Amino acid sequence: MIRATLRMRVRPGGGAAFERAFAAVADATSREPANLRQSLLRGDEPDSYVITSDWASLDAFRAFESSPEQDRLTAPLRELRLSADMRVDEIVRHVDAAEPETRRADQEKESR
User: Fold this and answer.
1) Contact 70, 64 (CB under 8 A)
2) d(CA 15, CA 41)
3) Assigned CATH for 2-94
4) pTM of the prediction?
5) Radius of gyration of the chain, Cα coordinates, nearest whole angstrom
6) In Å, how far are 13, 15, 68, 90, 97 from 55, measured between CA atoms?
7) Spatial strand order in the sheet of 35-42
């Protein structure tokens, strides 16, 4: 499993339009069988965003990334951004939050 992380700076005042464009891109990308999840994060600097996209494999991500469909889908995002930097990393371990019952049981064990 891999995670693509894309850091972007959008045109001043373009944040709302960028967020709308991302929603459309993410919706379409979520239909790709190897796409697992996507997130849009707003940075603490004005007009700064991070997109993360998790994929089942590097090959699947590369196939989508180099496809005409991806180029068409992401065109609205490219029009709104000033800069972008992407990295792709292998997810070595993913840990979901424990269920509330498990947390309580762990806390009770610790308090004994």
Assistant:
1) yes
2) 11
3) 3.30.70.100
4) 0.83
5) 18
6) 31, 26, 18, 10, 20
7) 35-42, 48-55, 2-10, 81-90
* Pairing of the two strands 2-10 and 35-42: unpaired
Contact indicator for 65, 86 with CB cutoff of 8 Å: no
Residues 6+ apart with CB under 8 A from 89: 2, 3, 5
Alpha-helix runs per DSSP H in the chain: 15-29, 58-65, 68-80, 100-111
pLDDT in tens, 15-68: 999 999 999 999 999 999 999 999 999 988 889 999 999 999 999 999 999 999
What are the sequence ranges of the domains in the chain?
A: 2-94
